[in-house]
Amino acid sequence: MAYSSYVYLLLFLLGTFVIYTILPKKLEWVVLLLSSILFYFATSGKLILFILISAMTVFGGALFISRTDSCFADLKGGLERDERKQLKKRFQRRKKLICYTTVLLNFGLLIYFKYSGLLAETANGVLNVLGLGQPFQIKKIIMPLGISFYTLQAASYLIDVYRGKYKASRNPVKVILYLIFFPTVVEGPISRFDEVGDQLYYGHKLSYKNVTFGLQLIFWGLFKKLVIADRADILVKNVFSNYSQYSGIIIILSVLLYTIQIYAEFSGCMDIAVGSAKMFGIDLPQNFRQPFFSTSVNEFWRRWHITLGAWLRDYVFYGASLSGWYKKFTALIRKHLPEGAVRLLLPLPVLFLVWFGNGLWHGADIKYIMYGMYYFFITCMGMFFEVPFAKISSKLRIDTKSRGYRIFQVIRTFILVNIGMLMFRADSLNAAWQMFLSAFKGINLSVFTDGSLLSLGIDICDWSIIIFSVILMLTVDILKEKGVSVRETVSGYNIFIRWGVYIAAVVLVVVFGAYGASYNPVAFIYAAF
């Protein structure tokens, strides 16, 4: 049941909304829970068992941790300082054991479903090198829907309780609904329990603003998905599948179009998800913030898939930074190296974990790991050359605050991101390398006039729609970057102009959407992760 399908939009979402608004507020959570279970079961069938297992294990584990804290609070009052210290250590070990065990159980399921093939392939490769054959059979395993997303949410809930950010919920329904909520379970955003837990469980009054703002987002997401992403997919799939037949500008355009495609599709999916939740009065966290205006790759990842970056920051970067092994590493290099080297080397181990985790999370393939390492390398280079470049800029009197320099930074970052996207989309690392080399061969501007661009699966009408739509999408992003709320602006118009805009949006999607006899349905890319 894809978010862009008529079944989801006209039957499931509309039906859920009608029932939600009819029932009393105290029963609205029941509608959300049952509709989310129905959505998951309709999409994944019996695999729903695994998300329920995840919910119940983190519910029980978090509750045990909170009760351990309460038990310690009750017992420590009558104890001496040393006794209290020993008791705290014992209870802390108990909390750590249950936290680690529960997190490992959930990540164990993720590893089994998502990475067992990669592990078997790697093991067979090692055994082949040793001359021992291939004893591990690689079987295709069907993953539960959204397992990469709900596993991170489940872990964040348990770890937050362990860290004392908030107490565990005593209501298993809130935890299950938090993990299985239908707008977020497919591709996120990866929300935190303290952000949405209460919103999901407690009812909301019907609001005209929530409904209209939600529908605006849904149709904007459909526009990006159906009009831009799915149409661009035709050319992208053709060139990437037959890359040896192309070179120069065609390779460059295919990579550029893929970057546009994945942005339009993923951000479009987030718009549909956030808009769907907004109709019910539920605010989900933002997952994109105009990433193509970033001046560095670090800024790009703070604007792209924001909730994944925040998860890696809070639970990998900070978790590793506060660990015992990292403290020993810090003490060691401080003892033997000068301060300048210490500043450069200290972040490297935890940055490596973050980018390795980022790459591995995206897929069970060596190309995704190298994708993460690509950004790790760029991040390291940025750190190493920051001081020398600042000195060079000063000597050359380059105004790093000027608009021209910022434009240069944005273009540079966009080029680096496209190289990363080439690696991300290519069938293999070798294919990515061959396409990268081919991009510099046979560059000929005649492809714009000799009809070559019309032999790639899309015609002049498709090109016109893509160009117009991308300009429109970027215009909206520019306005948002300047602090202009397009939704608020449209809502401020009189009823005739306002509804004229709404109707125009519907017409754009219905008339120019890439569906019908000449188009194949395109699954959401991130749903596969």
What can you tell me about this protein's structure?
The protein contains 21 helices and no strands. The protein has 529 residues and is mostly helical. Helices cover 71% and strands 0% of the residues. The protein has helices at 6-22, 28-44, 48-75, 81-129, 147-163, 172-180, 193-201, 208-241, 249-279, 297-303, 306-321, 324-336, 339-345, 348-362, 366-384, 386-395, 403-425, 429-438, 460-481, 486-491, 495-512. The model has no long low-confidence stretch (mean pLDDT 89). The relative contact order is 0.10. The two termini are 17 Å apart. Helix 2 packs across helix 6.
Based on the model shown, name its key terms.
single chain; 529 residues; mainly alpha; 0% strand
The number of helical runs is 21
Please give the alpha-carbon distance between the first and last residues.
17 Å
Q: In terms of quaternary structure, what is this? A: single chain
Strand content: under 5%
What would the average pLDDT be, to the nearest integer? Answer: 89
Helix content: over 70%
Low-confidence runs (pLDDT<50, min 5 residues)?
A: none
Q: If you compute it from the alpha carbons, what radius of gyration comes out, rounded to the nearest whole angstrom?
A: 25 Å
Question: What does the main sheet amount to?
Answer: none
Q: What is the approximate shape?
A: globular
The count of β-strands is 0
Secondary-structure element series: HHHHHHHHHHHHHHHHHHHHH
